[in-house]
Amino acid sequence: MTDINKNNLSNDPSPYLQQHKDNPVNWQTWTAQTLESAKKNSKPILLSIGYASCHWCHVMAHESFEDKETADLMNKYFINIKVDREERPDIDFVFQSSFQLFNQSGGGWPLTMFLDENGVPFMGGTYFPKINQNGLPSFKEVLQKVNDAYQEQKINIIKQKDLIVKNLDLKKNSVLSQDLEPIVETSLNYLDPIKGGYKGSPKFPTFNLYETLLYFYNRTNKKKYLDPVSLIIKQLCSKGIYDHVEGGISRYTVDENWTVPHFEKMLYDNAQFIQLLSKYCKINKDDYFKNKLLKTIEFLQKEFLNKEGLLGSAFDADSEGEEGKYYVYDFEQLKDIKDIGIYFDVDPLGNWENKIILVEKKTPNKIILDKLLKIRSKKKKPFFDDKTQLDLNCLWISALISAHEILPKKNFIKLAEEFFSKIEDKYINKTIQHSYSKSVVFLEDYAFLINLLIDLSDKTMNFKYKNLAKKLCDETFLKFYIDEKDIFQKNSKDNNDLFLNPIDIGDNTIPNGNAIMLINLVKLGMMERAKKLSNSLNGYLNIYKNHMMTTIRAVDFYNNLSSGKNCNEQGCKIDA
Fold first, then answer.
1. Distance of alpha carbon 547 from alpha carbon 544, whole angstroms
2. Range of 132's domain?
3. Which of 34, 162, 224, 555 has the greatest CB tally within 10 Å of its CB?
């Protein structure tokens, strides 16, 4: 029996949980045993969700979780559970949705949720400061008030479960088909026509939107769909969000000019960037974009490779206790580099906290880059979360296949097959799992694995890949498909340890699993199954369309093929 009166993270393989193993908080992992102990002790649960490269997770950890006084309050009032959202995206999805229900606003990380003793949420927030600031109460104040409310209203709070489940249950109408292009046209109204991305700040490269816009451009040849893609590609390649020295993009920028990044680098962003850039290079064949494509691939191949020979998850934003320290420069470091002002904006006053984030004016030569790299090499690199995630590695390999069409001399198809052989050995020949736990797998793992197999089959003409894709499709239906709703559940139906069955129809950091499965079914010719799934997704579109961009192109793809239209790369054929 696990002792809940001590910190039990030391044996968990997650790099994020390892960061918290020495906290004075009695952290537990999310297990049936931990959940049972909350019931047994009639104590509410404090659930903290984050990930290893999350800057604000580090801030809250240093301020509160490493503070003995705060930890004592947490241990006194709650069963404290720490979750790596990359290891358990289903938990993150359910409780982010709960946060949005309670607060009527978007969530984020760290996510701090308070659950009743049965694991049902009743309130929550994201980052709480150590002391009152910027309108946020101190974390210790929150802990005390939540405990007081729970003790006074426990019966009513526990009774709320059915209402919460009802409100979290996705709404659906009876629409089976509709014109999808007006939805896409409406999305254009929210975009910044000058600076790219959505209007305002922060600026995220929402790849699912731009993939869909590019798809509709290829189908309709309407320039209004291509223009926002051209703009975002230009910004991502030239501004501060791109690391011009080593390659790769950061997760987002805090400003609207794409200058000041939140410096963490994620595999999911960079793999999707490679995919979108590859597809864009079919239209715009400028060598500038091809060079950025190559630089990004080489960066991932070199810096993200882990000990398993696959790719890890992310680089931290912080190093030596400072956000961005590894990536920024002092003017004194740059002033003697000959002609650097020709290639980058170099202001003696800097462009962020008196430091210089490199923004490209002209493609720098190797001499300049080598000098910049030499300066950087004297600094400590940010922490690398080396965990392998199956879905993201499949996304990466599919991105390589897309890039092969643009850079055939690099033979990225060979590299893709080499990476796939590792996937085959580790997962297909053994256990298909998401990350560390052999018992945990998600719809996205199967969806992106099947999609990768289809890509390999199409490019190599080796039909063993397509046959395996069909076999895994059958497995996906057995593990995840809910017949009465004609939709896939996010986690395995027979291994759900949450208070509801999570059904995810929206895009998040990666394209939605149900949408990718629809594309897979169409490409594999499983049209009866595709029809049911397409009809089901159509029922959600009118209500949740702003979050369903991948679904829009997936349903449109199905509609075109099922109506017998001649689909090709210039029309409705897509690479999901």
1. 6
2. 15-168
3. 555
